[in-house]
Structures are given as structure tokens and as C-alpha cells.
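Researcher: Sequence recovery benchmark, item below. Answer with residues only.
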């Protein structure tokens, strides 16, 4: 069956906005389910064919109802931190939601689902709540347990305008004069561009060869966390001495940040960062997608030279604040 109308969970976030843009341009009808329509409406509701619906996706009846007129589902819901450290928040957002999603898809006869996971997701060996619950969610969905054709996407960190990686380090570097203490400095990442992620998700949607696959997604190069933070400082023209914390100090820094509002770093993040986030093979190649390098994109948004970064100015000039 040709997919026409897609429900997107977590579609208001960083990845979701790029994906919605991409799918809307390809002519799909999109139903984005959100906890707050007001908060998230701005640049999403202008996309052709997109309906933004406020609901509680954790309520099985509401979820089932909202999926009733859809042919496929994309689940982008993910959290990096929870209240407390028990793992319950991760379980709720990653595992219990997927259980409800499987039921809602089965009851509505939906046969196609794209699941956003993460590199190193592993129900048994994952080092953090984040990685274990992402792994549990994948295992519920594969291999085709519920008669739903699932593709899971396992990216390294994702970069692009409004990402939470380079932008967060940029803010932290600006706040920290001279010395910047860095936990988990040697962990390796292969940052992948958000538009490359959106591209492979869109291309796989109608591709039976992607059914029941778990795609690893990486950028063209691998860097240590220290390289990436140094690169962020250089791009911003900031002179900072990065101080590499050893494992014990990294753990202590995470434990302290557990109590900082908004948790800029946490014990769970520290545990996730104990494993390198790099691909064994890069599945972007399956679709001939050339991975985009950070050097060609990151300076544009960190230095506010991208077109999108001027939207607020444009709105203000047009008296549309
Ligand atoms: N960004 C990365 O570097 C990266 C790397 C690897 C994997 N991923 C995965 O990619 C996915 C998207 O990441 P992102 O960076 O776009 O995240 P994001 O910007 O934080 O967006 C996630 C979205 O999920 C929804 N959400 C969050 N917590 C929820 C909850 N408890 N219940 C219901 N909905 C909730 C939110 O939608 P509403 O507020 O509208 O309800 C939010 O817009 C996640 O699954 C993440 O784990 C991201």
C-alpha cells in the first residue's frame, strides 16, 4: 500500500522539524502529535499538509484514535535525562510508549513504522538507562513481532541548526572563561547531519528492503569529544584551554550536574559516553547519501550566518513577532 498519511511522534523536536520539512516537500500528509500545540506551532504549521495535534500520546485510547487515519508512524520521541535517576522516566518515554504504539498500530492495521533509536542501544549491555531502554524498544519492534514492518535508525550525535550538541557546548564555552573542564574527553563520535538523517528516513519509508533493518548512521569523520569541543571554540573564535578530566573526575562532574536544573550533563549521560558512538558500517551508503561534514555546516549556525538564523529578524521587520 502506498503511504500517504503519516503520524509523527516527537515531530516537534530538532530532528522532527527537519524530517517534517522533508516529508512535506515530498507531498506526504503529516499528523504531528504533540504535548503542547501552542508551544510548538511556529514554523511547523506553515508546512503544507501538516496537522499539529495536541494530545497525550501515553494514553492508549487517544493514541489509537489519532492513528486511525494514518498509513504509517514515525516515532522520534526520546529523552536524554529524566527526573531522578531510577530509570523510570526512560522506561516510560522509550519502552512503554513503544508497547502502546505497537498495540495502536495493530488495532488500526498500520503496517509501517520508523523508529528513532541510537548507536549502542542495547537492552542487555547498554551502559546507561538511555541506551538500555532504547535497546528494549528496538527489541520489542524487531524482528517484525507484531506484523509491522519496522526500520530502526541508530545515529551517532546529530548536528544541524538548533542541535543540542554544538549549540550546548557553544553556550557552555561562552560562559566559562579561560579553562573548560571536559568529562569523557576521549569518547569518539561521528556526527551525522540532520538533513542526511531526514533523507534516509524519507527514502526508506516505501522501501521493502529496509523492513526489519537497524540502520547505523554516521558522518564522514570520527572525532574525540575533545576535538569537537576544541572545534566549537575555534569556530566561535574563543580561546579556551580544554582540561581533560579523568574518569573519576568525569563521574564526579556528572554527579554534581545531576542536581543542576535542566541537567546539562548527568550520570546517565556520563554512562552513555563510556562507549564510543561510531558506526561499524555507515548505512547512508545504501541510499548513496554522501555524509555531510561538520565543517561545511556548523560554522553557519554557530556564527549565525545561516538563512534560518535570521527568521526572528525577518519576522520582526514584517511586524510578525
Ligand atoms: N539529537 C541527537 O543528537 C540524537 C542522537 C541519537 C539519537 N537521537 C534520537 O532522535 C530522536 C529525536 O531527537 P531530537 O534531538 O529531535 O530530540 P528533541 O529535540 O528533544 O525532540 C524530541 C521530541 O519528543 C517529544 N517528547 C520528549 N519527551 C517526551 C515524553 N516524555 N512524552 C512524549 N513526547 C516526548 C517532544 O515532543 P513534544 O514536546 O511536542 O511533545 C520533543 O519534541 C530521539 O529519540 C533521540 O533519542 C537523537
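Model:
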Amino acid at each position: 500500500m502506498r503511504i500517504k498519511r503519516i503520524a509523527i511522534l516527537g515531530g516537534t523536536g530538532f530532528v522532527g522539524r527537519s524530517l517534517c520539512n522533508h516529508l512535506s516537500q515530498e507531498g506526504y500528509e503529516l499528523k504531528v502529535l504533540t504535548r503542547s500545540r501552542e508551544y510548538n506551532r511556529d514554523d511547523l504549521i506553515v508546512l503544507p499538509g501538516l496537522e499539529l495535534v495536541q494530545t497525550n500520546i501515553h494514553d492508549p485510547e487517544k493514541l489509537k484514535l489519532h492513528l486511525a487515519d494514518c498509513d504509517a508512524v514515525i516515532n522520534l520521541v526520546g529523552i536524554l535525562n529524566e527526573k531522578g535517576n531510577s530509570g523510570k522516566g526512560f522506561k516510560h518515554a522509550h519502552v512503554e510508549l513503544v508497547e502502546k504504539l505497537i498495540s495502536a498500530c495493530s488495532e488500526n492495521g498500520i503496517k509501517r513504522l520508523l523508529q528513532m533509536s541510537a548507536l549502542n542501544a542495547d537492552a542487555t549491555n547498554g551502559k546507561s538507562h538511555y541506551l538500555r531502554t532504547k535497546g528494549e524498544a528496538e527489541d520489542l519492534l524487531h524482528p517484525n513481532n507484531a506484523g509491522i514492518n519496522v526500520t530502526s535508525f541508530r545515529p551517532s550525535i546529530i548536528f544541524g541548526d538548533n542541535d543540542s550538541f554544538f549549540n550546548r557546548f557553544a553556550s557552555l564555552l561562552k560562559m566559562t572563561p579561560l579553562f573548560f573542564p571536559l568529562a569523557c574527553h576521549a569518547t569518539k563520535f561521528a556526527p551525522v547531519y540532520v538533513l542526511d538523517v531526514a533523507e534516509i528516513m524519507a527514502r526508506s519509508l516505501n522501501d521493502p528492503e529496509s523492513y526489519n533493518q537497524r540502520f547505523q548512521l554516521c558522518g564522514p569523520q570520527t572525532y574525540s569529544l575533545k576535538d569537537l569541543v576544541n572545534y566549537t571554540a575555534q569556530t566561535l573564535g574563543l580561546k579556551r584551554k580544554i582540561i581533560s578530566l579523568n574518569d573519576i573526575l568525569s563521574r564526579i562532574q556528572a554527579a554534581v550536574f545531576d542536581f543542576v536544573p535542566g541537567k546539562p550533563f548527568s550520570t546517565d549521560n556520563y554512562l552513555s559516553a563510556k562507549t564510543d558512538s561510531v558506526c561499524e558500517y555507515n548505512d547512508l551508503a545504501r541510499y548513496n547519501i554522501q555524509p555531510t561534514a561538520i565543517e561545511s555546516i556548523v560554522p553557519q549556525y554557530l556564527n549565525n550566518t545561516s538563512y534560518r538564523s535570521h527568521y526572528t529578524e525577518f519576522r520582526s521587520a514584517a511586524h510578525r513577532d
